[in-house]
Amino acid sequence: MPIPVSLIGAPTDVGAGARGVSMGPEALRVAGLQPTLEGLGCEVIDRGNLSGPPNPWQPPVDGYRHLDEVVAWNSAVHEAVYGELQQGRLPVLLGGDHCLGIGSISAVARHCREQGKKLRILWLDAHADFNTSLITPSGNLHGMPVACLCGHGPEPLVRLGGHVPAIQPNMVRQIGIRSVDEGEKRFVHEMGLEVFDMRYIDEMGMRHTMELALAMLDERTHLHVSFDVDFLDPEIAPGVGTTVRGGPTYREAQLCMEMIADSGRLASLDVMELNPALDVRNQTAEVAVDLIASLFGKSTLMRR
């Protein structure tokens, strides 16, 4: 049976600190995402782009930038992702900035509650995204989605999926982290978030990291991957607004994706923060599509 995949574009940068990720969905399409997935045997429908308010580019109010616009976009994302899951399809959200993970993951969590499934979230990112209005240095909501999902954020975002909190911290495994704000470090520690930072990956290797991140998955587990393209080292992925040196190499990232594919549990995906305005000849989009192909089972050899 071919995997039924739905592509959903969310072209907005309302939660980000730099303009340009609103062009991310189109760059992924130009890089051949749909034919690549079809070549791997997926049955792909491109649902086109969601619509929402433009970016007003205003300073923060009460610790949040563009809260109303972020709520509107996440509400649209929530309904779109939830609708695809209801139809038994695998939604692939094409961002857009990472604040959209609130809408996407709250929809996945809602689906899992209704289906009696366990949820595991792999958050592939250079940043923990666990800020709140009290500790954020910028007010940008793309630095807050994990905290919002865990119940720490503005009421309209925290309640988006109809259940507070949408997720528990023990559902999340963060991989590739290497930039965490000072107040955020304490909060991550207090909440018991499981973080495999780059030092851990340097010391233990990507294989051991992924074995732990994927441990205890079973047929009742829905695996959601939220892939921020700044997870990758900027040497191979320059097209992001918040580059942090020292990320996973191309081969480390491939191993990460291949081990997720080997689990057989991938059921929903976000691809976030691709900024074509900062890219070089769409290089980052092409790398991202290549890695997504590995997530869906592309490998060098036939594996027994």
CATH topology category name: Arginase, Chain A
Q: How would a crystallographer describe the biggest sheet? A: 8 strands, parallel
Low-confidence stretches: none
Could you tell me the radius of gyration in angstroms? Answer: 17 Å
Average predicted local confidence, pLDDT = 97
Which structural class fits the helix and strand makeup?
alpha/beta
The total of helices stands at 10
Q: Please write the CATH class name.
A: Alpha Beta
Shape, principal axes of CA atoms: globular
* Distance between the ends: 19 Å
Could you state the oligomeric state of the chains shown? single chain
Helical proportion? 25-40%
CATH superfamily: Ureohydrolase domain
Count all strands and give the number: 8
Tell me the series of helices and strands, N- to C-terminal: EHHEHEHEHHEHEHEHEH
Number of domains: 1
